[in-house]
Design brief:
- The chain is 82% helix and 0% strand.
- The chain is built from three helices and no strands.
- The chain is rod-shaped.
Length: 77
């Protein structure tokens, strides 16, 4: 098996790189946002304190997932 030592960041077109690196992050963040919306609907039935807790935790998890997915995708290319 041959290993490709060519630097893809310097040779591939920018739009191709942008799609391959940004699309997984976008899809992951969209899935997490949908999960948070559905979670908010069910948790809001428990009260204001529960809703405040997930409202605070939502952006924190989005940032961490986007960061982790971005690192994983960038490492793979």
């Amino acid at each position: 098996m041959e290993t490709n030592t060519e630097n893809k960041m310097g040779t591939k077109p920018v739009w191709s790189l942008l799609l391959t690196m940004a699309l997984p992050v976008i899809l992951s963040t969209a899935a997490q946002s949908l999960y948070n919306i559905v979670d908010g609907i069910f948790v809001s039935m428990l009260g204001e304190d529960a809703m405040a807790a997930i409202t605070f935790a939502g952006p924190c998890t989005k940032v961490l997932i986007a960061l982790g997915t971005g690192i994983a995708v960038a490492d793979r290319t």
